[in-house]
Specification:
- By secondary structure, the chain is of the alpha+beta class.
- The chain has a 6-stranded mixed sheet. Strands 1, 2, 4, 11 and 12 form a 5-stranded mixed sheet that branches. The chain has a 3-stranded antiparallel sheet with strand order 6-7-9, covered by helices on one side.
- Helix 5 crosses helix 6.
- The longest helix is centred in the last third of the chain and has 23 residues.
């Protein structure tokens, strides 16, 4: 059963003396009730709920549903190597590879409507919004530049992320609870990476981009997994020596227990 993690908006109440300025641009904000989520070895995925509010929204446009919200939960960026397997003499082996730098390990999107109904494709490209528009920088080998090869490996990288559930999109995942209050639900995959994730929300009015706001969320391992992970990160050499020692002892014990006379 998928867990539900609530992320509450922090909205400062407007003082009575502060009247809404009809000429002021719209703004909005999201806030987190917790900036830390702990996952254990039996974590099977979760739905992360984000609440937010519009400030100085045009009430008529709001009632007509002319505002759209796109929410992204973007995981930490890490280098990734994509390898291509080719069948040689009946055996599948790695024959080509392409390295990428600063690739978001996870990327979950929630929208009020299908992305093609919110704004134009060139706007998404300018904002680098959506899994198809994430800028993936390929590491070029010395003296070599093959755009066709880079495009092939880039498409394969995106497809691998989608197949693993790390890049996903939930149409209708953002819902307006009132003309100014909204709720977004994004998916955390079972293999969601630990680290600092950034929740980004984009506001559109009649297809025009208005503003972006963001908040941070930290995902960590819990219990024994967290202690092992922290030890490996902080004392890599000692952890490696201990792992080798444990493997040797385990192998020796297995040999003693199961050896035949």
């Amino acid at each position: 059963m998928r867990a539900l993690l609530a992320v509450l908006a922090i909205v400062a109440p407007m003082a009575p003396a502060q009247a809404q300025d009809a000429d002021a641009p719209e703004s909005f904000q999201i806030g987190l009730s917790t900036n830390r989520v702990a996952i254990s070895s039996d974590f099977s995925g979760a739905d992360l709920t984000i609440f937010g509010a519009l400030d100085n929204a045009d009430q008529m446009l709001a009632r007509q549903g002319r505002y759209d919200i796109v929410v992204v939960l973007e995981g930490p960026a890490r280098p990734i190597v994509v390898r291509k397997k080719t069948r040689v003499l009946g055996v599948w082996i790695n024959t080509e590879s392409q390295s990428f730098t600063s690739v978001p390990v996870s990327y979950s999107v929630a929208t009020t409507r299908p992305l093609q109904d919110v704004t134009q494709p060139q706007v998404y490209r300018q904002l680098a919004l959506g899994s198809e528009n994430i800028f993936l920088r390929a590491v070029e080998e010395e003296g070599q530049r093959d755009p066709a090869k880079v495009a092939e490996f880039t498409a394969a990288l995106r497809e691998q992320k989608r197949a693993a559930g790390l890049y996903n999109e939930r149409v209708g995942g953002v819902q307006f609870l009132s003309p100014s209050l909204f709720r977004a639900t994004v998916a955390l995959a079972p293999n969601v990476p630990v680290g600092t994730h950034r929740a980004r929300a984009f506001l559109f009015r009649n297809g025009t981009f208005v503003k972006e706001t963001s908040a941070q969320l930290t995902i960590v391992k819990a219990g024994l997994e967290q202690r092992i992970y922290r030890t490996a990160q902080e004392n890599g050499l000692l952890f490696g020596i201990f792992a080798v020692f444990l493997a040797v002892v385990t192998g020796w014990l297995g040999r003693m227990i199961f050896k035949r006379d």
